[in-house]
Amino acid sequence: MTLPDWVPVREDLRAFEPYGAPQLDVPVLLNVNENPYGPSKATADDLAESVREIASDLNRYPDREAWALRTDLAAYLGVADPAGVWAANGSNELMQQILQAFGGPGRTAVSFTPTYSMYPEYARNTHTRWVTGRRAEDFTFDLDEALRLIAAEQPDVVLLASPNNPTGESLTLESVRAVCEAAPGLVVLDEAYAEFRRASTPSALEVLAEYPRLVVTRTMSKAFAFAGGRVGYLAADPAIVDALRIVRLPYHLSAVTQAVARAALRHVEESLARVDELRATRDETAGWLRAQGLDVVDSDANFVLFGTFDDRHAVWQGLLDRGVLIRETGPQGWLRVSIGTPEETAAFRDALVEVLA
Ligand code: PMP
Q1: What are 171-181's pLDDT values in tens digits?
Q2: Interface ipTM > 0.95
Q3: Aminotransferase class I/classII large domain location, by residue (predicted)?
Q4: Interval between CA 213 and ligand 1 midpoint (Å)
């Protein structure tokens, strides 16, 4: 895409493409880390009923504060005060709000690559100066390097994904604490894949009360099987939430979104029922990939990064030609596959064997 010269767009945006993985109509979709299991008929009926119930009030604006939904999310997270919970249209929107309120011109945000490729885009959109540090050679979080960069840059925002996308590594609580103690501004722990962690890996929620400038974001898009509903949420000190309320657009969460998200939360046990199975499939997939002689990064999420390939695009294309869409993302030579149903994962394995033959 090239914007014609007459389009008076910001010059710093002119050269960019809209972000996003290819949305292709193929049988096996293992590219955007969705939960492969949709809602049961009973849950889908309840979701539809929740929309029917509010349909006759759609002439009215929704609750600007999304208070009932935040109350339900607080209960799910075990957070006592819903004033310390905030929600938006996906954690993408949350992050953008965070950088609108805490980043911006003259301010700096840092993260550590390889990590979620949307972060620099939030920074660009909000005119926040973006600085990337590096993870270690094996992609693990390098605490010394992080502390060095934080000391040098004094960032207004530190963004850390845990489990990290695309590598799958979770941060230890020691690392979270050390970053919170060193960082002068906001520390955002993006826990989009939190539910897929191993039991031994703690959530940063455990130390939230100790660090008033710590924000923990979550999403209903992954384990919750609700990517189409577009709901991300966070827990933080209520005063941090108040700062986000200044930049949010009025009525940013539609009445439909709020109603459907609350209905989905009523069925949380069903949505999360497959998480154990997905975790087991993830570990099996990692083991299988290793047995093929490939390098694999240990993952706490619902995807696995594997490689390395001289021409990863050819491998990606070969899989696509066999009806399996994965993601060409992350460091050069690596590919990321989301964990699907056993049938989808088997289709991926069969296709990969053929491609690598
Ligand atoms: N954070 C991370 C680390 C992600 O991988 C994703 C989705 N790929 C998101 C945030 C955004 O998810 P959503 O906007 O659907 O909540």
Answers
A1: 999 999 999 99
A2: yes
A3: 28-351
A4: 21
